[in-house]
Amino acid sequence: MTLNQAFKALSDPTRRKILDLLKERDLTAGEIADHFQMTKPSISHHLNLLKQAQLVWDDRQGQHIIYSLNTTVFQDLLKWVLHFSSGKE
Fold first, then answer.
1. What's the pTM value of the predicted model, to 2 decimals?
2. What percent of the chain has pLDDT over 90?
3. Whether 51 contacts 37, CB under 8 Å
4. Considering its fold, how many domains does the chain have in total?
5. How many whole angstroms separate alpha carbon 35 and alpha carbon 47?
6. What are the respective helix, strand and coil percentages of the chain, to the nearest 5?
7. pLDDT (tens digit per residue) in 23-63
């Protein structure tokens, strides 16, 4: 994961909404798509960008892929942001 990938993924409101949904519980792509008025391939594109940024994990369970948050990356992002308020190099 690079910070650039993470910030690019976070820059889109649809992807932020997906992250908000996953904050509540793990979901399949279909369950995520039910919250949006867009095509499933569009949702898949957003999920792929979130996966590339390592903000979400995917786990195949039978015919379904379950998506969940990768909180480690959020901790890394927060650490990077807090670096500026601490005044340390």
1. 0.86
2. 71
3. no
4. 1
5. 14
6. 60, 15, 25
7. 999 999 999 999 999 999 999 999 999 999 999 999 999 99
